[in-house]
Amino acid sequence: MIFKQHLFFMLYSACGLVIKEAATKNKVKGGQVPITQNVTVVEGGTANMTCRVDYNDNTSLQWSNPAQQTLFFGDKKALRDNRIELVRASWKELTISIHEVTLSDEGLYTCSLFTMPVKTSKAYLTVLGVPEKPEITGFTKPAQEGDHVTLTCTTSGSKPAADIRWFRNDKEIQGMMEVNATGKSFTVRSTLEFLVDRSEDGVAYTCSVDHVALLSTPQQVTEVLEVHYAPRVEILHSLIFPQEGQYFKLECDSKGNPLPEPVIWTKDGGELPDVERMIVEGRELIITSLNQTDNGTYRCEASNSLGTDIAEYKLFVYAKDLPGATTDPNALAQHSPDHALIGGVVAVVVFITLCFIIVLGRYLARHKGTYLTNEAKGAEDAPDADTAIINAEGNHAHAEEKKEYFQEAARNVVHLKSENLGFANNYALREEYVKCINVLNVNHM
Fold first, then answer.
1. 3-state class (DSSP) for residue 377
2. Which of 132, 162, 221, 383 supports an S-S bond with 211, CB 3.0-4.6 Å?
3. Angle 23-28-30 (CA atoms, 0-180°, nearest 5)?
4. Measured distance CA(315)–CA(294) in Å, rounded
């Protein structure tokens, strides 16, 4: 009986071990899942494709391409492609490499674990198309002033589409961009349109291509615009006030493309009269010693294939003793007169004029009304106003009335200030005196 119990216990334990082992094995197989990651690579580079499993009971791993062609089964190469190599093969990992990747290699790759059933994991290989070096077209060398120019920058082979930027010298400007798909890559164009003038001569236009595959180094190309234009002429002179005996120089500043060479100097519509004193050196006309026979109109003429331009300078030679003229033969800068001196002279003149006006005004004010009436003839020598009235010609009979009227008039101006008494005696009192005489004359009549 005891033996039977012991035998039963041993059989029960053995069955438990078998059941436990089977359960563990099923759990492990349930965790056998391949793990992959997406890969991004630049065209022409190398892509490493890795497949891993955490648990594997000696089951093989396999890589297949987007066309479902087997690349490697375990460590066995299945596809004849020299670009594809085995990197590492084990029960837990299968890694392969694809060299010199092209855009056609892009797609969904599959890692398979051959369990029952087969378990798979997919990884997407993204290939970045590198844009080709850009090219600028539309340059006409040389362009002429007034031309309408269209510049086009083109780059192809980019994936995704590249971005094009324009620069005029160092300043960014906007163009019109166009994107076209060509297979798996893109062709990008950007256009600039503008009217050419002489300021465009020598300007550098740069087309720059930005793309994720180029990292931080964009591809770019630069073209320098050459513009031909007719000349423009200006005459520069070395002296402001040229004097007799001085060294004098005129410079014909001519700008044009092609450069106008040589320039032609004339005087008063004809040739230079004195070639010994008047020397032409390139664009310069030098007069070694001025005299008044040099007075006249000097003309500089410059020409190129696109046109002709002229400039004139009227020369007047001052007498030798003219003060302030410069004698520096190399001075082409403009000199200005002494404004401080001129201002001082003007100020003195204005001050003297104001003083004269004030004195004249005071004189006229003091002598205003200084005249004699017929009735007051002979009164200018009287010692005072009373006597002047009494001594007035033909008025002795009414002397008392005049005196009283005069005194009344004097009281009317007593309010004047002391500084104005002299003026009152000479003006106000005499005014009252005249009124008094007129009234007496009326009464007398």
1. coil
2. 162
3. 95
4. 7
319: helix, strand or coil: coil
- Which of 154-167 are b and which e, b meaning 16 or more Cβ less than 10 Å from the residue's Cβ? bbbbbbebbbbbbe
**pLDDT at residue 384, as a whole number:** 55
Locus of tokens 């166009």 = 178
Residue among 12, 25, 83 nearest 49 (CA): 83
Q: Report the share of the chain in percent with pLDDT over 70.
A: 71
Alpha-carbon distance 402 to 396, whole Å? 9
Dmax of the chain from CA atoms? 197
Residues in the chain: 445
Tokens of 51: 């497949």
List, for residues 279-304, the tens digit of each pLDDT value.
999 899 999 999 999 999 999 999 99
Three-state DSSP state, 293: helix
* Cα–Cα distance for residue pair 388/392, rounded to 1 Å: 6
| Burial (CB count <10 Å: 0-12, 13-18, 19+), residue 389 | buried
Tokens 């479902």 belong to residue: 68
Point out which residues pair with 56 in neighbouring strands: none
Summarize pLDDT for 60-91 with one digit per residue, the tens.
899 999 999 999 999 999 999 999 999 999 98
Cβ atoms within 10 A of the Cβ of 1, count? Answer: 5
Q: Report strand pairing: 204-210 vs 119-128.
A: unpaired
Q: Determine what percent of the chain falls in helix, strand and coil, rounding each to the nearest 5.
A: 30, 35, 35
Residue/partner pairs of 213-216 with CB below 8 Å, 24 or more apart: 213/42, 213/43, 213/128, 213/129, 213/130, 213/131, 213/158, 214/130, 214/131
Peptide bond between residue 160 and the one before it cis (omega within 30 degrees of 0): yes
